[in-house]
Every structure is written in structure tokens, then in C-alpha cells.
Amino acid sequence: MIDVAQRANVSTATVSRVLNNSSRVSAKTKQKVLQAIDELNYIPNASAKSLRSQKTRTIAVVVSDIHSSYFAEIVKGIENMANSRKYRIVICDTQNEREKEVEMMSLAMDRTVDAMVFVAPIISNDEIKAFVDRGYTVGIIGRHIEHPSIPCAYTDNVKISQEVIAHLLDKGHSRIAFLSGYADSTDSYERLEGYMKALTFAQLPYDQELVENGQFNENGGYEAFRRLWFKSLDITAIFAANDEMALGVYRACRELGITIPEQLTVIGVDNNRVAKYITPKLSTVEQPKYAMGALLVEKLIDQMNDNDFIDQRVFKVDSKLIIRESSSISIDRTGSVST
Amino acid sequence: MIDVAQRANVSTATVSRVLNNSSRVSAKTKQKVLQAIDELNYIPNASAKSLRSQKTRTIAVVVSDIHSSYFAEIVKGIENMANSRKYRIVICDTQNEREKEVEMMSLAMDRTVDAMVFVAPIISNDEIKAFVDRGYTVGIIGRHIEHPSIPCAYTDNVKISQEVIAHLLDKGHSRIAFLSGYADSTDSYERLEGYMKALTFAQLPYDQELVENGQFNENGGYEAFRRLWFKSLDITAIFAANDEMALGVYRACRELGITIPEQLTVIGVDNNRVAKYITPKLSTVEQPKYAMGALLVEKLIDQMNDNDFIDQRVFKVDSKLIIRESSSISIDRTGSVST
DNA sequence: AAACATATTGAAATCGATTTCACAAAATGC
DNA sequence: GCATTTTGTGAAATCGATTTCAATATGTTT
């Protein structure tokens, strides 16, 4: 920068002013400075910049598995919105490890980033609140946290369950199993709530045997389903907490010779890429992932740049049931089958 | 840091020495300093640190689509190795836009990162070389660049093609189409070379009509296949440049009523997640993605920390053909079919 | 006990930008 | 034409760490 200043015969202060359009600089000197910058191929040093300004214009996005289309879509929404606001994002993959999620907080603590977005985090609401109360800026996707300065974007899990179960009841099912994720995740809890509500609404009993927990991935679904199935509970339909788990159910069924949807109806959540390729095509629930990412990060950036801004903080977005082959068959009470 | 120094009754220099174990500090003062750090909950500022040290211990990983399992696995390899060397990585998704790939270079230019890893980049070798010659540190995955200071990890594309084609010839195919990616990508070029070599080896003619280019994704495969198919070339097998494209072929076939593998054999490359779920299961080629990522970044870090280090710079890793249902059928010259 | 080596520490310079403050030059008002 | 405001610019302080250099304290050798 000093070189630029010398070449343009001005002070570094002026160079800085030109770079940031901060205060008026005469057209003539501005021209000189720009030319010098160009000739020297000068690029301002990011560390120096953020050291002085105490801002990095960078947001960390913490996801548990970039591989999953759920996260990938959200990240795209975040990225595009962030870029349009001249923010950079860094994507942090925790590979489903709780410990790594905590580690990532150091990015905010050492001021590598200005803010963090946690997507469907593993850590508890209380931990996040404590973190925010220590002065860090955080946004959450996929969960709702009651806190005045934490923006959240999430889908109504209760409603998702209710719609799915209503659809299954409509198809004549009454023994509907629920493959849930980690028992203590908010998602799981809310979906279970919706599941129970829907049953109650249909005046069906809630049988705890029909609920099984597992990991939020293919193998989790596979194992949880096998535990369920070997209990011989006359299940005719499975509601899996996400499509990955539903794929695990598919695999188990293939091994066990159970045909979908004739012998078993399966529904997932996410509408991931595989869902529409696999045979039979998987019924699922679509969430506006891209929009959640974009909305949330826009809100977060607004919040960082204007502390008074106390607009809407919580985004509860709508989901949509997508009915495909895996839930295309109706059954009646006698056990006979019709398409 | 000044607070810490005051609380411990030492200078900031000493605090810094304690933090970095740089030079001898007496056990007693060290203890005092550590205690003060702990009590004040002090965390060094990353910007200041890297401004002074001219190092960020951060590596940018540029991929064209984090969603793809090809990239995701590589990134995991990179991340784990980088972390074990106390480096951070930032993942940059270019969403297949060439322009964004170029933009990402600014991360190195403004010293936000110490080095960049390009995974299967779109930009040309010459552009990358020019960048490196301007003093930036770069590693490449998925392509080979002849340059003394660019480490590369890649698979032998020629060999991949040869093995795939050999397998198909073995199954009795002689009209084998090749769905290539961008015509000017190195991958495409090398695979085409392997394709031609294999044909020559089998004393079959090379028919340019059988080669079609498309985008490296599902839709690219779909469209390229349709262009091919409507030329009515008596194709019995398709070799797609990656699994995504193969999935596009699947979709087109479903629409056109072509059965796989009875009427058409399909093989992809990548062994992505969908490949083993879809019906029929897709034959493909597995590359050691995780290992490529880890190897490359280890090399890159070594190179940054020791300029004399002129060990192996190029990693040509082995791939493996995975035969599944989509290529399970043999044909003979009379056109009859057997499993 | 003097001379010298070694261990420990602090003051101050430095990294490369931004920003405050002051001041000169130009523009405006009367 | 003089006072006043506005504009444009530079010198120097600052952000928060690291590192050099010098100074002091301690230990060792004769």
C-alpha cells in the first residue's frame, strides 16, 4: 500500500480512501491512485483490513454433512445471499461429531468470522444461547431457539408429521411406525409430537413400541428398521425422519424380501436426490431449503450491521408432501390391497 | 493480550512466548501467564496473528459442487489431514461456474488463505500455472499439471477407460458409445484416449459418431444420450464420464422404454451414493477419493513449510472397476442375450 | 571474587491496513 | 475583499499480535 501511495504521490490515507470510497477524494487524485493500484497489481491484505476494522465479512456455516442434499441446498441459499451482500462464507463440516461442532465456535471466538450459522446443530439450545450471550453472532437453521438475538429459520415439524400421518391414514394404514432420529434432538421431539397428535386426531392409540430411534443416516435407518421389524408388530407403513433413513429401510427390505409398497409403505423427509431415482420412488416431504438459507443469512447480516433492527427474527416456513410410488398403495381393514 | 500481560505482571512479549512456546520462559511466569489467560478467557485474535506472521494456516478447497459425493469424499480426506496438521480449510463451492473459480483466487491473493486446492477445476492448466508463477501456492486434484511446484493427485483416466471398455468388450459389446464431459477438459480428453486405445487393442474401428459431449451432470447425460440415441447407431453399451451422467441415461431410457441392462448396458465413473441404490444397480469405477485428498494436502503443507522439500510431487492413484447389474448381461454376435 | 556464559524478560518496532485530527486550499457569503 | 465554510489531503495513532534487541539476573569457571 505504501508503494501505491508513493507511486501516486499521495499518502496511504488517501489510498485507503480511494479503496473504500470513504470520504471525498478529488477526481484527479483518485485517478492517479487507481492507476498506481492497477500498475502495481495491488491487492489489500485481508488480515490487516480485518484487524483494523474488526470485521472479516465472513460467515461460518456449520453443517454436519455437506454430502447430504439437505445441507447442500441450504448452503447454496446462504452462499448466494451472502455473496450478494459482499460476505464470504466458509463451510464447516462436522462429520456428525458433536465435538467438532463445539470446536467450530473457535472461528467466531478468535474473530476469524463475524458470525456463525448452525444448520440442524447437535449441540443444545442452552449451549448456543450461552455462546450468544458471550457476545457472538449466531443464526440457526432447522430449529427454533427462543432468544431475542438469534434468528432462526425452520420448518414446522409438527405439521410435517401430521400431514404425513394423515396421508398414511388416508391410505388405510393404522399400524404406522415412526423411525426417529436422535431421541434428544428437537426435530425428533417435534415430529413425534406431530405423529401423536395425528393419531389422536384419528382416534387411534399411540403405541410406543412403534417408535424407534436411530442415527440420521442410511445405516441408522437400516438398523432401526430391523429392530422394529423383528418385533413383529404388523406394521404396514413407516414414517422415517429423513430420506437417508428411508433408504436404510429400503435396503433392509430388499434383504428381508419385503416389497415396497405392496407389503410396506415408506415415507421420508427431505426430498433428497436419491428419492426420485430409487425404485420405487420415495414419497417424502419437501422443505424450502434454499429459501431458509437465504432468508436466515440475510436476516443475520442485517442484524450485524444495524443493531436496532428488530424486525422479524423467526422464519417458520412451509413444507410440502410429495407423494410417489412408495406410498401409492391403499389397504383396507381386511388386509387386501388396491392401488 | 495487554490485559493478560498486566494481570500476570509481565510484558505482552512474554505472553506471546507462552502462547507459542517459542523461547524459554521460566516455569513460574509461564504458570502466572496461563492462569491469567484462563481467568480472562483470553483468545488470541486471528487477524492480528496472521497479519504479523503472514500465515493464516488456512487452505481453500475449491470444488464445483459440494453436493456430489466425488467432491465430498475428497474434501473429507483433505479436511482430516489438514486438521491433523493444525490447518483449517475453507470449502468454496463454485456451483460449476468458471467465473466463480477465478473469483476464488482472490482468497489467496488477499492472503485470506495460505494455499488453494482446486478439485477437478474448470480453468485451464495455463491459468493455474500463471497463478502459481505469481507466487501463490496451489495443489490440484483430479488432473495432472506439469509444473515443478504444483502437487497433483489424480487417477489414471486412460486406464479407467481401458478397463471399462475391456469389460464391455468381454461382455460381447462392439458398439460402445462414450458420453464425455466438456470436450476441452483433461478428464474427457484422457478418457477418450483410453477409449480409443482399448478399441484399437481389440482391433475395432473408432467411430466418432459414438462419442457425445455433455455437461458433467444428470441433465448433461440425459441430453447427450438422447442426441446419441436418435442417431440410431445400434448402440449396445454406454460408457458415461461419471455416474451423474449415467443417471441421466437411466432417466432417458425410462422415458424411451429402453431396458437396462437387457437392451442397453450402462457404466459410469465415481461410485457415487446413488449408484448402488438405483435399479438396476450401476456398474462404475471407484477412485480412492479420500486418499487423494489426504495425500495431496499433506504434500502441499509440507511444501509450504519447507521449500527444499522436493519429494514426490505427483500422485497417480489406482482406480477399481465395480461391476453391478447395469452391465451384468452378455451379448453375442447374433444379438441374442444371456445373463 | 572477577570474568564470562546463559537464561529470562521487557521496550519498542513491525505487519498493513483504517481513521482521527489538523491544516491548507478552494469555494462561498456578505 | 475579508470572514467563513467546505473540500481535499497527510501525519500519526491504532487494531493485536510477534520478534528483535538490549538489559538484567543467574549460574559457572577460574
UniProtKB/TrEMBL annotation, chains A, B:
Q: Does the keyword GTP-binding apply?
A: no
State the UniProt keywords alphabetically: DNA-binding, Transcription, Transcription regulation
InterPro entries, sorted: Cro/C1-type_HTH, HTH_LacI, LacI/GalR-like_sensor, Lambda_DNA-bd_dom_sf, Peripla_BP_I
Q: Which SMART domains match?
A: HTH_LACI
GO molecular function terms listed in the Swiss-Prot or TrEMBL record: DNA-binding transcription factor activity; transcription cis-regulatory region binding
Q: Does the keyword Ion transport apply?
A: no
Per the record, a Pfam family? LacI
Q: Which residues form the HTH cro/C1-type domain?
A: 3-43
> Residue ranges of the HTH lacI-type domain?
1-53
Q: Which PANTHER family match?
A: HTH-TYPE TRANSCRIPTIONAL REGULATOR GALS (PTHR30146:SF109), LACI-RELATED TRANSCRIPTIONAL REPRESSOR (PTHR30146)
Name of the featured protein = Transcriptional regulator, LacI family
